[in-house]
Amino acid sequence: MLRAILLLLVCMNLGVAAWWGLHHEPPLLRLPATEKGIASLKLLSETETPPSVQASDELNAAPDSLSAATNCQSLGPFQTPADLRHAMNLLMPLVSRIQFRELAATAVRGYRVFLPAAGSREQALKTARELAAHGITDYYVVTAGDQQDTVSLGVFRDLVNAKQRHDQITALGYTVVMEPRTEDVPQWWIDIATAGEFDWHSLLPDPELTSRPTACF
Questions:
Q1: C-alpha to C-alpha distance for 172 and 136, rounded to whole angstroms
Q2: First-to-last CA distance in the chain?
Q3: How far is CA 203 from each of CA 74, 195, 197, 200, 206, rounded to the nearest angstrom?
Q4: CATH class name, domain 67-105+186-213
Q5: Neighbouring residues of 89: CB distance < 8 A, sequence distance ≥ 6
Q6: How far is CA 63 from CA 58, 59, 66, 92, in A?
Q7: Identical fold at 67-105+186-213 and 108-184?
């Protein structure tokens, strides 16, 4: 049995040695870069043509100098980006140069009518009871914040209504304060340069728009 196993191992080793000696690797097949009828990929830098000398000169050239008779003015204010775009589209074909600027502005959002702060909370409540005795019911005693111990008589969007409220309470013998409620908002102005005088009112009939001279740009 031992001899049979030894003979089997010798035969296996001889078989493996013969396979390695007579074996040949198959040649490697190189696949084509692309299939027939399909163009190969190229980098953008390989296909992009540089701008012509003439185009480069046009991009780098400075804008034409303005003559002494050029009229430069600033139009505005425009309250929304939509109003600004509309005006820019109308003016651009008719002017020599145009640009816009964004500026911070203060807008009035209404009016607050109130009685100044009393010496104490008790005094403010006493004033409120006096108002109620006069038939004034729409008031509010402020109990905290910067306006603490004041008596609010209302917040009005329209100046006329705020003035009426002010006069009504003043007639009862109280010292009434009416102050605007303001908010910081963006506004836009359009700067234009034209050859001579330019009437923009027919293009932009908004009565709130104004014009003012500005430095040429």
A1: 10
A2: 109
A3: 15, 17, 15, 5, 9
A4: alpha beta
A5: none
A6: 10, 10, 9, 16
A7: yes
CA 13 to chain centre: 82
- For the chain, the structural domain boundaries read 67-105+186-213, 108-184
CATH code assigned to 108-184: 3.30.70.1070
Backbone angles phi and psi of 69, in degrees to 5: -85, 5
User: Strand, coil or helix: what is 30?
Assistant: coil
Query: Tokens 């209504």 — which residue?
Result: 161
Helix (H, G, I), strand (E, B) or coil at 39: coil
Rg of the chain on CA atoms, in Å: 43
Half-sphere exposure of 181 (CA within 13 A, CB side): 13
Tens-binned pLDDT, residue by residue, of the chain (217 aa): 777 787 778 778 787 777 777 766 666 555 555 555 555 555 544 444 444 444 434 434 445 566 666 899 999 999 999 999 999 999 999 999 999 999 998 888 899 999 999 888 999 999 999 999 999 989 999 988 888 999 999 999 999 999 999 999 999 999 999 999 999 999 999 999 998 889 999 999 999 999 999 999 8
What is the 8-class DSSP label of residue 114?
A: E
> What are the C-alpha distances in Å from 166 to residues 154, 158, 171?
10, 13, 9
**CA distance to 25, 101, 141, per residue, from 175 (Å):** 109, 43, 16
